[in-house]
Amino acid sequence: MGHYFNPNIVTDGLILNIDASNKVSYPGSGTAIYDLTSKGAHGTINGSVAYVGAGVSSYWNFATASSANYISSTLSQPYVDCTIIFYPDFTLNSNSGLVGLIAASNDATNTDKSMRFGGATNPGPWTIKSSGLNADDWGNTSTTYYLNGVAVANGASLNAGWNILGAYRTNQTTFPSSFAYFLGTEGFSAGVRDFQGRIALCLMYNRQLTAREHAKNYAAFKGRFGFSSGGLSQGGVGGAE
Prior knowledge:
Blueprint: E1 14-19, E2 32-33, E3 43-46, E4 50-52, E5 59-62, E6 70-72, E7 81-88, E8 98-103, E9 114-118, E10 127-128, E11 145-147, E12 150-152, E13 163-168, E14 182-183, E15 197-205, H1 211-221
Antiparallel strand pairs: 1-15, 2-3, 3-6, 4-5, 5-15, 6-14, 7-13, 7-15, 8-9, 8-14, 9-10, 11-12, 11-13
């Protein structure tokens, strides 16, 4: 399977790899997205999620935050760490000020176990959620996130452009130990907590990555999405069009 994806990424424990720029993962049309690992965690595009071909920085576009718009799988696996590359749309106004990116369910089950961000009120920026954390969150106040090559804590702001984000799921109790992923939603029907923006790639692992491994994944993608070695996007907003 190695020749299908970037040979420089961490592969130990890798159980999901979907990539909008890889024709093996997504041919450019249709609703089927193919997992590049041997695990078969293939995804399905639901609702209005458009594909935008932009060479090595192609992406799936979530033009409108809606509980109907997401990418999902049916295979449950123990996803505990991730590297996800996305471009938030800071014009989003959420009635709860929250936006979801990775969830364990969709809104039909009304459960908000997810990776989510605060500050989803125009003009942003969104922040790694620093207050109101509870047992439904991917992380907690002591979680270290790896954002664009830099270790940050809760409360850090996302780029107004591409973000390469790594994070270990510290919720190992109330969050399902294994679940089928949903990208682009929070799965909580009591509030508008859905994603608006672009998702280019998602890697997920069945174990916790080290700081060195997160740095390796960042290094594998930084040039592709316009980042300098210091973690700052070239021109200020990596990948902006």
